[in-house]
Structures are given as structure tokens and as C-alpha cells.
Specification:
The protein is α+β, with helices and mostly antiparallel strands and about 300 residues long. Helix content is about 65%, strand content about 10%.
């Protein structure tokens, strides 16, 4: 019989509190920026207000996902609901990329027909927004390091950069009267968001496609397991992520003495935990005389 070792890990309630506080701050300031941006004719402020309004939706999705992820495993969902946070991260990242594309399109229109921008209003709102967004970012940093939190932080980082750009644009316009600085900085922010979003999209897709987690080498892990005392070889090795913080592994372990399986299993679990932080391992023992070891076996004792 395969042996399992899978203690459950889920988001902590503190993470949910961080999402809720960030949501309230975000929606409140989004309304302020939208009103000020429309009155001042500032794309930077309106773009940042759009960011924050969308962030309210994004944080709501993240909050719901974090809450659902707390539910225990069931007969229908035997691995639990931790991957809900990965799904939320994927949705929020795609949403952020769409916003970045919209800002780029609007910026090019404003390059052709730059409106008059009320610099003083932009400076005041930009400075206030920067303070609010830094506070939201700090709150979310205490919510953990899951893909869900990282996606939410990406939204807030976009807003933080937007507020900084608004502040800079307002100062430049106030001192020089050069209005193109407003859409120019918006383009710069959109590019930064695009780069970060594509990276996060890659990470979320890797989890959903059950790829080997970043930073882990399947061949190296297989050879390390084969070097554990009592193991003849390792094959059919698979490594994937249950969620952004939980790594799973399954493998067939060829051993000489089936009676010694329990101590060998314990040594393998210790090896995986200490070396790679893998705590959910499904290991199938096979006696040497019955095992049909494929050519691509990941480790073999002579």
C-alpha cells in the first residue's frame, strides 16, 4: 500500500483580516481619486482610481478565496480548497493585465489630445494616495506569501506607482506646464505592471498545470531519494503544488527488504522535509525482485 503523509496547511485568519482592511481602504480612496481625477482632467489620477476600484473587486475575490481555502478536506475534495487561492490569483492577474492594456490605449489618445490638468489637485491627491497605498501594501504583507496575496500585492503596487506618478506629474506640470508627462508616466506604470503580471501569471499557471515548482529539480530530488539508506532506486517520480504553499510528491521506491520499509519510509520523509520542505509524500514500495525499473529511473544503487 502507498504511504501518505499530508498535514494540512491553510491560510490563517490573520490573512483574511488583512484582506478585509485593505479592501475597505481601497474602495474608500478609489471614490476620492475618481472625483478628483475627473475634476482635474488627470489621466494619471483617473487611471489610479480605476486601478483601485478594480483592486476592490480583486481584493474581494482574494478575500473570498482565502475564506474558502480554510475549509477542510472532504470526501468530494480530498485535497481541500487551498487551490482556490491560486484560481483567485489567476483571475486577478488577468484583470490587472487588462487594466494595463486599457491605460496604454488611453495614454496614446491623450498624447494626441492632451487635456489641461489641474496640477495642484493632482499633487494633493497623488501624495495622499501614495500614503494610503503604502499603508495598504504594509497591511497585505502580513497576509502571508501565497499567490493570492502576491496577486493582491501586485494590484496595490500598481496603485502605489500610480499615486507616485500622479505626484510627479503634478509637480512637473505645475513647474513647467508640460502636460504630456501625465500619459507618459501612465505608460511607464503600465509596462511595470505588465512585467510583474506576466511573472505572476507564469507562477499561477505552473501550479494549475501541476508543473514542478520553481526552485526544485526533479532529477536532483530523485537522486537524493535514491541515496537514502535502504533505497535501491526511485522511479515514476512526480512533484507538483497543491497550492502556492503546499508541495506534493509521489514516487515508486524500489527496496531490497520489504520488512525494512517503515524505517526507510521514515528516512525518506525526513530527507524530503529537511531538504525541500515537502511534507505531503505518497511513496509506493516495490521489492527489487518484482520491480520493473524503467531506463529513465532517477536513481539506482549498484
Amino acid at each position: 500500500m502507498p504511504e501518505h503523509n499530508h498535514p494540512l496547511k491553510h491560510s490563517i485568519p490573520g490573512g483574511i483580516r488583512a484582506f478585509l482592511l485593505a479592501l475597505l481602504l481601497t474602495l474608500g480612496f478609489a471614490a476620492v481619486e475618481a472625483i478628483a481625477g475627473g475634476w482635474a482632467h488627470s489621466l494619471t489620477l483617473l487611471g489610479d482610481a480605476g486601478h483601485m476600484a478594480t483592486d476592490g473587486v480583486a481584493l474581494g475575490i482574494a478575500l473570498l478565496a482565502a475564506w474558502v481555502a480554510l475549509r477542510p478536506a472532504s470526501e468530494r475534495h480530498t485535497y481541500g480548497f487551498g487551490r482556490m487561492e491560486v484560481l483567485a490569483a489567476l483571475v486577478n492577474t488577468l484583470l490587472m493585465l487588462a487594466i494595463a492594456a486599457a491605460i496604454v490605449a488611453e495614454a496614446f489618445m491623450r498624447f494626441q489630445h492632451p487635456p489641461v490638468v489641474h496640477a495642484k489637485v493632482v499633487i494633493i491627491i497623488g501624495a495622499l494616495g501614495l500614503i494610503i497605498n503604502v499603508a495598504i501594501y504594509k497591511v497585505l504583507q502580513h497576509g502571508g506569501n501565497s499567490l493570492n496575496v502576491r496577486a493582491a500585492l501586485l494590484h496595490v503596487l500598481g496603485d502605489m506607482l500610480g499615486s507616485l506618478a500622479a505626484l510627479i506629474a503634478g509637480i512637473v506640470i505645475y513647474l513647467t506646464g508640460w502636460f504630456p508627462i501625465d500619459p507618459l508616466l501612465s505608460l511607464f506604470i503600465a509596462v511595470l505592471i505588465l512585467i510583474s503580471g506576466l511573472r505572476l501569471l507564469r507562477d499561477a499557471s505552473r501550479v494549475l498545470l501541476e508543473g514542478v515548482p520553481l526552485g526544485l529539480d526533479l532529477a536532483k530530488i530523485g537522486l537524493g531519494m535514491a541515496s537514502v539508506d535502504g533505497v535501491r532506486s526511485v522511479h515514476d517520480l512526480h512533484i507538483w503544488s497543491l497550492s502556492s504553499n503546499e508541495i506534493s510528491l509521489s514516487a515508486h521506491i524500489v527496496i531490497d527488504d520489504m520488512d525494512a520499509w517503515q524505517p526507510v519510509l521514515h528516512r525518506l520523509q525526513e530527507h524530503l522535509h529537511a531538504g525541500y520542505g515537502i511534507e505531503h509524500a505518497t511513496l509506493q514500495p516495490e521489492p527489487t525482485v518484482l520491480a520493473r525499473i524503467p531506463v529513465e529511473s532517477l536513481g539506482r544503487r549498484s
